[in-house]
Amino acid sequence: MKITIGHLYPDLLNLYGDRGNIQCLMKRCQWRGIEAETIAFELNDPIDFSKLDIVLLGGGSDREQMLVCEKLKEIRKDFKAYVEDYGVVIAICGGYQLIGKYYKTEQGMITGLDLVDLYTEQGEGRLIGNIVLESDLFDMPIVGFENHGGRTCINQCKPLGKVVYGSGNDGHTGFEGIIYKNVIGTYLHGPLLPKNPHIADWLILHALQKKYGTEVEFPSLDDSEEKEANDYICQRFLK
Ligand code: GLN
Question: Which domain holds residue 87?
Fold first, then answer.
C-alpha cells in the first residue's frame, strides 16, 4: 500500500513548522510498512488531486494568506471535487481559514476556497495559548497551541471538538475546528500530529480506506510516549 501526501505551498504556509506534521504522517505509515511519499507544491505548480491521498494546508500570516489566495481560485474546482469525493485534508490555522468562504481582515478581504461552510473575520486582539479539546471522534483528548487573530464561524457544521481549555474557533462558542467528510480544519498549530497521534491515524486510515477499501489492515503502534506527553499537557492545564 502507498500513501501520497500533497503539501500545499510550504514556502508560504509553514508557520510554527507545520511541516513536522508531514514527517509524522510519513513515519506512522512507514512504521506500518506502508509506503509514503510527499509532494511539495509551490504556488505555480499544477496539482493533480487524483494522485493525492492526503492534502496538508498549513498556517500563515495574513500577508502570506493574501499571496496564496489569488492562486486558490485556479485550484478550487479540482480541490472541491477531491473533498466531495472524500479526499483527506488536514488544514491548519491560516490553511483552516482558507478552506472557508473568506477571511476578512482590516487590510482587506482574503477569498477562500469555499470547500466547507465557514467564514472568518478578524477580531479584537489575538487568541494565543495552549488549548485542550474533547472530541467525540477520539477517546484521547486533543492538545495543542493556537495563535490567531481571526474568529471562525462554522455555521451548522460539526466542530472537531469542544474546548476544555483555551479559546477555539471564536473564543466564545466553546468549539474548535471543523470536520466535514474527510476534512479536518483546526487552529491547532505546529506539532499537531506528533502530539495527537490519534488524529494522524484518523487521516491515514481514512486515506487508506478510500484507496484500498474498508477492510485494510491497520495495526496499532506503541504510542506510550505520545500518550504520556498528551496526558502531561492535560494535567498541566486542566487542574
Ligand atoms: N493569519 C491568520 C490569523 O491571524 C492565521 C494565523 C496562523 O496561521 N497562525 O488569524
Answer: 2-238
